[in-house]
Amino acid sequence: MNLKIKYLYALCISFMFTAQSGFSQSKNLPKLKVSKNQYYFVTEDGKPFFWLGDTGWLTFGKLDREGVNKYFQDRKAKGFNVVQIMVLHNINAVNVYGDAALVNEDISKPITTPGNNFNNAAEYDYWDHVDYVLDVAQKNGIYVGMVPVWGTNISSKNSKVSKEQVIKYAQFLANRYKNRTNVIWMNGGDTHGNEFKDIWNGIGSTLKTNNPNQLVTFHPFGRTDSSDDYHTATWLDFNMFQSGHRRYDQDTLPGSFKEDNYKFVQRDLTLKPIKPTLDGEPSYEGIPHGLHDTLQPLWKASDVRRYGYWSVFAGAAGYTYGHNAVMQMFRKGDKPAYGNKVFWYDAIKAPGAGQMVYLKKLMLEFPYFERVPDQSLIANQGEKYDYLVATKGKNYALIYTYTGRKIAINMGKIAGDKVTATWYNPSNGQKTKIGIVANKGVQEFQPTGKKEDGNDWVLILTSNK
């Protein structure tokens, strides 16, 4: 518990500062719900909520209080409003302070202590630290996508976790966090949805029945989707897919969408009932192509931008970014996974993380709930990295190119005799006006720079008033 003692001095200094500056306890964040058109998220006060997530999977276990504050303050500054975290990475989970989560690795028996006093080790437990993280997230305007138990704990051949145990555990979670407005439940956890369905249905239905105002989804295995197995489940509020970390040539799965993550969105939006959908785990920045061969190239900022714009313009309700070092909260002395060599507190500054906010800002700049995907705008659609994707509202259209190739547009799809054309740079959010063009026939637009992967641009068309 020495880390707690070390933190007290910093805590006292922080308290003195906030007291002097008139700091008051942060209020609950607005509840989230599905929009009336069922495609997007909205806050209880009617405002659009564009999900911009980060994968901080091991936050509860590996970050101390100082680290928690540093991480969430950084993510707030970069525009993130959701962080996805495992509640239990393993059933033998122990946090940075040495507090175990469960009695004898029995998921139905969380270890809780009287009180919540950080100054007294006997009164501060694993779940109190989870509470602290949720408080810090709330203070920074961030919702937490909580995975109750990571899928390998259920799917392992040595697993002794039963349906009865997980239901008791889910009831514990539901009761403890019933008054939290910044909690989103992510059932599953990198696992095949068609396996152990009794357990996943048990967790999902228990959480949803007890807390109907908290959103629930399922985080599936790579190249799969929650809609594959749970789309009609009454506990599933929205779909989540994991487009995964492989390149086109590394994916030999029959029928796979490969890197074309927009295809998950296109398929999900044809299903009934309509539910929002999003990519909850694309390729992480700084992780090897295909994950396991550390000699492979690393996915870059331009790659995470591509996954974001492809899926959102196809109709997704948001997007989750990830970084190799941050998702594992890599610290000095840790055994690295997937060839990582960067500490998490350095990796939060990675270029891709800072660029995600430009996607969010662009989506919120235009009338939000009228936005629909529309590939009929594009006269030269292309495939693989040359694929162009389009979305529009009544008076605007947005078209994304990853490679800087020429864009040919079938005009007349938005209002007005003329439209203003503008380039938007996804790497820095800067706009460059092209000019006013006739809103008829086929118009061609050529981005600056040579045609190459990562020379990505958004063409913005707006109706002249």
UniProtKB/TrEMBL annotation:
The Gene Ontology terms for molecular function here are: hydrolase activity
- Using the record's annotation, list all stretches that form the Putative collagen-binding domain: 372-461
Pfam families noted in UniProt:
Apiosidase, Collagen_bind_2
Domain (Apiosidase-like catalytic) ranges: 35-370
Q: Hey, what's the signal peptide range on this chain?
A: 1-21
Name the UniProt key words of this record, in alphabetical order: Hydrolase, Signal
The record's listing under InterPro entries reads: Apiosidase-like_cat_dom, Collagen-bd_put, GH
Q: What is this protein called?
A: Glycoside hydrolase
